[in-house]
Design brief:
The complex is a heterodimer of chains A (322) and B (42). By secondary structure, chain A is mainly β. Chain A has four helices and 23 strands. In chain A, the strands form three sheets. In chain A, strands 8, 9, 10, 11, 12, 13, 14, 16, 17, 20, 21, 22 and 23 form a 13-stranded mixed beta sheet that branches. In chain A, strands 1-2-7-3-6-5 form a six-stranded mixed β-barrel. By secondary structure, chain B is an alpha+beta fold. Chain B contains two helices and two strands. Chain B has helices at 13-19, 23-29; strands spanning 3-6, 8-9. The longest helix of chain B is centred in the middle third of the chain and has 7 residues, at 13-19. Chain B starts with a strand and ends in a 13-residue tail after the last helix. In chain B, 24% of the residues are buried. Chains A and B meet through β1, β9 and β20 of A and β1, β2 and α1 of B. β9 of chain A pairs antiparallel with β1 of chain B.
């Protein structure tokens, strides 16, 4: 069995549609570069939590092949359990045959009822896939279904329209400011080495280098707990992250240095306004790595840069969006 | 060989739970831990 922590997805807002089976059954999924498995709810799930979602029905798919292998998707105090199966997965016209995926069977909590997506499609490396399941994009490459072994992500700033995941290509209309390529430091997550982090012109963290993960499945900018309070204070916030909305225009950029290049995130991006309140879009966590601290560059960062996830040469490409 | 999936921006689970008055209870029962996503698959 294997686990995938669902509680980490409670802030995510970008969703797309895929279909599974023959004929296709549609699902709203989150495209997550921070995990590697595909899972959707299934008709095996009889709890109320599943009643508000599209459920995959294997008996209505002529191409489904079941297994007896179990999978568990954990969230906080409980976990969804399910089984693994194989079927054709269609992602924007690309048909991936014999794709392994998880079909949930039980859902012990109620909150999933309100979850805005049905399932998750992981786009990270096979080395972190639960149950050894081959990720969708690996099958796209193996089955020669993509023109190039890369995919790219654009998240629009207004968030209302225009966001996309492009499989097999780089859209040159989003790279007019050039692409900076950063080699991966690990083929697990989309993990890179970060040189340092500045607030304005002042180095504030990661001064001896650290690790960062580019993760579409994380909404905010995640920083080590040991740094969070000093970072919030440097930006004029208390420990809750709340800040005066009138001060936003005077805040400095937070600048991530990656492979010798500066990648600024302006206050208009890292301050999140909701119902008249302004909050800094940072959250803390502690995950030590062999190379020191771990930072997560989530959607707040990705909205500033068109990101190319290149499996052909294991690099992340970043192009500033104007 | 080139395929674009359009993404739309919807309401987050956090926002939906907040609107239903369930967020506080949810966070009590499920302490939020961003680190749980990483290095937890087995």
């Amino acid at each position: 069995s294997s686990t995938e922590p669902l509680q980490n997805y409670m802030d995510n807002e970008y969703f797309g549609t895929i279909s599974i089976g023959t004929p296709g059954q549609q699902f709203t999924v989150m495209f997550d570069t921070g995990s590697s498995n595909l899972w959707v709810p299934s008709v095996y799930c009889s709890s109320r939590a599943c009643s508000n979602h599209n459920l995959f029905n294997p008996s209505e798919s002529s191409t489904f092949v079941g297994t007896n292998e179990s999978v568990s998707i954990a969230y906080g105090t409980g976990s969804m359990t399910g089984v693994l199966g194989y079927d054709t997965v269609t992602v924007a016209g690309i048909e991936v045959t014999n794709q392994i995926f998880g079909l949930t069977e039980t859902e012990p909590g109620d909150f999933f009822y309100y979850c805005p997506f049905d399932g998750i499609l992981g786009l990270a490396f096979p080395s972190i896939a639960s149950a050894g399941a081959t990720p969708v994009f690996d099958n796209m490459m193996t089955e020669d279904l993509v023109a190039e072994d890369l995919f790219s992500v654009y998240l629009s700033k207004d968030g209302q329209s225009g966001s996309f995941v492009l499989f097999g290509a780089i859209d040159s209309s989003y790279t007019t400011n050039g692409i900076t390529w950063i080699p991966l430091s690990a083929e697990t997550y989309w993990q890179i080495t970060m040189d340092s982090v500045y607030i304005g012109d002042e180095p504030v963290a990661c001064t001896s280098g650290c690790q960062a993960i580019v993760d579409t499945g994380t909404s905010l900018l995640v920083v080590p707990n040991s740094i969070l309070n000093s970072l919030l204070a440097a930006l004029g916030s208390d420990s809750s992250g709340r800040i005066s909305c009138s001060a936003v225009s005077m805040l400095p950029d937070v600048v991530y240095y990656l492979n010798g290049n500066a990648f600024p995130v302006p206050p208009s991006a890292y301050v999140i306004e909701s119902e008249g309140d302004c909050m800094l879009g940072f959250e803390g966590m502690d995950v030590p790595t062999e190379s020191g601290e771990l930072w997560i560059l989530g959607d707040v960062f990705i909205r500033q840069y068109y990101v190319v996830f290149n499996r052909a040469n294991n690099m992340v490409g970043l192009s500033p969006l104007s | 060989h080139i395929s674009r999936v359009s993404l739309w921006r919807g309401k987050s689970l956090r926002q939906t739970l907040k609107e239903h008055g369930l967020l506080e209870n949810y966070l009590k029962q499920h302490p939020y831990n961003p680190a749980a996503k990483y290095f937890s698959t087995g």
